[in-house]
């Protein structure tokens, strides 16, 4: 216990799924939490997003650990909203040590397709950059920035079989790949200041995003209305290990490591929590 004792963490997408899991795990190890989420649906995203009640529940889980929380509804696509939310947290806690830019959406099969492209890029890429950049003025030596990528960002997809068929789905991969490059360059130039920045790349993760009708259709395009039972066997195609997905807690353990002093010299890394998914795409090379 106490691996991040006394630290303050700013977490986007904290109302449920991976974001909630990260908030609870960091709180269990001693961090106070500034928790942010949109808490409303986006029309082009084909599954329900978190609610205000979900964010309240995250705050209650954090407080049960004995740590404090400031929970604020804000849209990561709007830097001004994020800055206001972060300022409320810093007014309460007085500092900032950890940024977990977790908020993200999957636009697979989203309609209208142009809206789906824009909403995914603006949430996953622009929203991640917004979260990091509103935090940068408050970060000091020893701080840690952690962005959520995806194994999709690492896949070698050189051939486009059907251009324009699923703009929202393509935007997911594009956004995660672009944010990975952004964090890599940021890490390089923050290193002399003693501030670290890394990306965590989960494979399929057992959250509402994965367990959704659009994702089921992506994994089982041969069926008109696939169910979870139809899609779940196909989830395993992503991993070398014989698993359909990882749990949010598996990703949270990596986030905790990167937030803690245990990783004080780890920066600019693309940390995979992927059940060996990357191994299916690339040969070993130095």
Automatic annotation (TrEMBL):
<dbReference type="InterPro" id="IPR036291">
    <property type="entry name" value="NAD(P)-bd_dom_sf"/>
</dbReference>
<dbReference type="GO" id="GO:0016491">
    <property type="term" value="F:oxidoreductase activity"/>
</dbReference>
<keyword id="KW-0560">Oxidoreductase</keyword>
<dbReference type="Pfam" id="PF13561">
    <property type="entry name" value="adh_short_C2"/>
</dbReference>
<dbReference type="InterPro" id="IPR002347">
    <property type="entry name" value="SDR_fam"/>
</dbReference>
<protein>
    <submittedName>
        <fullName>Mycofactocin-coupled SDR family oxidoreductase</fullName>
    </submittedName>
</protein>
<comment type="similarity">
    <text>Belongs to the short-chain dehydrogenases/reductases (SDR) family.</text>
</comment>
<dbReference type="InterPro" id="IPR023985">
    <property type="entry name" value="SDR_subfam_1"/>
</dbReference>
<keyword id="KW-0520">NAD</keyword>
């Amino acid at each position: 216990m106490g691996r991040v004792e006394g630290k303050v963490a700013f977490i986007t997408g904290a109302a449920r799924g991976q974001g909630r899991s990260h908030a609870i795990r960091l709180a269990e190890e001693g961090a106070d939490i500034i928790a942010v989420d949109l808490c409303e649906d986006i029309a082009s995203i084909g599954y329900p997003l978190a609610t205000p009640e979900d964010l309240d529940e995250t705050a209650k889980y954090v407080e049960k650990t004995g740590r404090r929380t400031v929970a604020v509804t804000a849209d990561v696509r709007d830097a001004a909203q994020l800055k206001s939310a972060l300022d409320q947290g810093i007014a309460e806690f007085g500092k900032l040590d950890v940024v977990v830019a977790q908020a993200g959406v999957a636009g697979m099969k989203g309609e209208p397709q142009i809206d789906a492209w824009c909403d995914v890029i603006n949430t996953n890429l622009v929203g991640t950059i917004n979260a990091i950049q509103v935090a940068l003025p408050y970060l000091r030596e020893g701080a840690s920035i952690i962005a959520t990528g995806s194994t999709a960002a690492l896949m070698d997809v050189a051939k486009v079989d059907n251009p324009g068929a699923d703009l929202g789905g393509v935007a997911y991969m594009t956004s995660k790949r672009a944010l990975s490059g952004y964090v890599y360059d940021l890490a390089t130039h923050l290193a002399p200041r003693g501030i670290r920045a890394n990306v965590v790349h989960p494979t399929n993760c057992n959250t509402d995003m994965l367990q959704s009708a659009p994702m089921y259709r992506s994994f089982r395009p041969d069926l008109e209305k696939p169910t979870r039972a139809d899609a779940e066997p196909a989830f395993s195609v992503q991993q070398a290990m014989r698993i359909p997905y990882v749990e949010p807690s598996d990703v949270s353990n990596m986030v905790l490591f990167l937030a803690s002093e245990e990783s004080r010299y780890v920066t600019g890394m693309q940390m995979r929590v992927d059940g060996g998914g990357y191994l299916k795409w690339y040969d070993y090379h130095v």
